[in-house]
Amino acid sequence: MEISVDQYGHKTVVKLRENRLDAAMAVRFKDALKTVVDDGAEFMILDMSDVGFMDSSGLGAVVAHMKYMGTERNFEIANLTPTVEKVFKLTRMDSVFKIHKSIADAIPEDLKNAI
Amino acid sequence: MNEPSPAPEPIFLRQFKSEQENVSNILSELDLWMSGDARLKSHCEDVAIVLAETLNNVVEHAYKGSAKGDISLFVGVDTDQLCCEVRDFGEKFPGIPHPQEMSGPEQNFEDLPEGGFGWFLIQSLTTKIESVSDDDSNCIRLIFDCSPKDS
Asked: Among A51, A53, A85, A86, which would you mutate to test the B interface (most chain B Cβ atoms within 10 Å of its Cβ)?
């Protein structure tokens, strides 16, 4: 499981550097994101631009992570590819998460030049 | 003078052991195979989602996580439909569940579902589902409409 972590102000952008988020990856994905939260991330944005495919186990892992972060921290998502977006929409989870078109949309105005 | 034989309909057949990694690899191969056929290309997304859910169910429920089970996947194309057959020799398939609605953001944060999306996705994206199990094996047949108007 490969991720990259970039800090923009108080927002932590975690990019999942895998092309599938599926049953084979779900547990490792949850563990990797949990580590970033335990290291102090209070406002996480998950960049899914590399993820071309996600199944229901992957979606379940994303929901579980949001619940792990709880209501006192923030978890948002950006850059859904078409198949991943379809899974979010069909299951109505697109209305549960705050989903941004791009990372630039998700981070503070004054830090956009840093991308 | 003999008429040229019609081109054979495309077929994708794989037999593999019940491991999640194998499911991922086979589905990547299927995506490549479908992408090469103009008629099937536009159905790659739906077929990938449906087969991922179906094969994961086999790994998790029919074989209960054991990596020793045999799975076969057949994908064939008829004039206007794509048929996928998934066969396993594990625990007897309990039957196709009744379609359910997914609840949205109206529920409590703690109650948001972390699972149970699988059959919903399968039923949302297929034209028809058949269970044709016998005494020795379970077989699920998943039909997708691929008439020319869709391609």
From this structure: A53
User: Backbone dihedral region of A95: left (phi > 0), alpha (psi from -120 to 50 degrees) or beta?
Assistant: alpha
Cα gap A79→A11, rounded to integer Å: 16
* Segment among A14-28, A29-43, B100-114 with least mean pLDDT: B100-114
Global ipTM: 0.87
pLDDT tens per residue, range A63-91:
999 999 999 999 999 999 999 999 999 99
Architecture of domain B11-93+115-150: 2-Layer Sandwich (3.30)
Residue B9 pLDDT grade (very low, low, confident, very high; cuts 50, 70, 90): confident
Residues on chain A touching B114 (C-beta within 8 angstroms): 60-61, 63-64, 67
* pLDDT tens digits, one per residue of B116-137: 899 999 999 999 999 988 889 9
Distance CA B23, CA B51 (A): 9
Write out residues 17-76 of B within 8 Å (CB-CB) of A: 20-21, 23-24, 27-28, 45, 48-49, 52-53, 56, 59-60
Closest alpha carbon within chain A to B42:
A83
Question: What structural domains does chain A harbor?
Answer: 3-105 (3.30.750.24)
CA quadruple A33, A25, B42, B144: dihedral sign: negative
